[in-house]
Specification:
alpha+beta, 4 strands, two-stranded antiparallel ribbon, 2 helices
Length: 61
Amino acid sequence: MKNMYLHIGNNKIVRTRDVIGIFDADTATVSKTTRAYLSEKEKSGVLTTATDEVPRAFVLY
């Protein structure tokens, strides 16, 4: 079976089997739980960005 990959920007490529979800930043970040999760991941250093612009979506993998 061949691997499939997803280019998520800024020369970052992930295997599609590792992708949990792709979320719209405007609607997903309304939840306090989601905001807390993203904040915690950013503080722990595992959250990376693909661009310097305000994100319209995010990929959880």
